[in-house]
Predict the structure of 4-diphosphocytidyl-2-C-methyl-D-erythritol kinase.
Amino acid sequence: MLVFPNAKINIGLNIVEKRADGYHNIESCFYPVGWSDALEITLADEFSFRSDGIVIPGNSSDNLCTKAYQMIAADYALPAVKMHLLKSIPIGAGLGGGSADAAFVIKALNEQFDLKISFEKQLDYARRLGSDCAFFISNKPAYCFQKGDEFEDIDLNLKGKCIVLVNPGLHISTVEAYSGIVPKRSEHDLHNVLKEPIENWKFKVKNDFEATLFPIYPLLGEIKEALYQQGALYAAMSGSGSTLFGIFELEKDLQKHFADYKVWQGPLD
Ligand SMILES: C[C@](O)(CO)[C@H](O)COP(=O)(O)OP(=O)(O)OC[C@H]1O[C@@H](n2ccc(N)nc2=O)[C@H](O)[C@@H]1O
Ligand SMILES: Nc1ncnc2c1ncn2[C@@H]1O[C@H](COP(=O)(O)OP(=O)(O)OP(=O)(O)O)[C@@H](O)[C@H]1O
């Protein structure tokens, strides 16, 4: 089976409070984007995982794909498989790429081997692998709360608009990014603000990581500003960085403009 785990962006990210378990409760809109890895899962004599493309830190037993397989294999009689990942989504980029790979393994094993794991149970498995992971089980625009792993439907349709993702190659650790944050309630209810015209978002839809990370990495703020100068309706950092995104009314080719960085651009669904 061949699947294409895709990235996500965070449209708005309020870090509301620190939890007793050390994590943070957040409020965010998660939106799928087309920057994708490719993952092939085939029957084999023994389990193996290998990856090509962007080098993933850690060895194959640390990989979230391996962890997802082992977790399901602990509860279901799974045959051995060979997994081959072509890694394209930048790492430490706020795009949830590792989480997407893991969620797609859960979904692919369920389908390929007819395991009949319910949707709710797939979500529970995904939550065990990472806060971002559960989103990729449904992989539809959603308002996310708690650790980012509880969802409500959101009335937001950006279909037809174009997104440009710019990754400057800085690897920002999620743990470090959260450690710099002083949580606070947001001034604006994200649900309501996202119903306003996209041109208003610039003033009201904030990613709380920007205030602490932009002073440390000024390049991030410069790229966001450049996206606005190029005509973005809305621009922001995704997750804990380091990827910036711009949403444009029409197709936009900024590959040359951001020639020093990794750029992905395409339509939103
Ligand atoms: C920044 C976001 O990408 C926004 O979508 C996510 O909140 C991060 O999700 P993730 O990468 O799946 O994070 P996890 O692998 O679950 O956690 C990594 C570390 O980030 C911190 N963490 C993560 C999620 C969360 N809601 N609060 C946290 O404080 C914790 O220190 C945790 O040990
Ligand atoms: N399949 C995988 N792809 C990418 N990273 C992986 C994978 N498996 C394990 N990891 C580990 O997860 C870490 C970061 O994962 P990921 O790419 O999801 O982070 P991110 O882009 O910062 O996402 P976010 O902050 O939005 O969760 C890496 O340091 C890497 O060691």
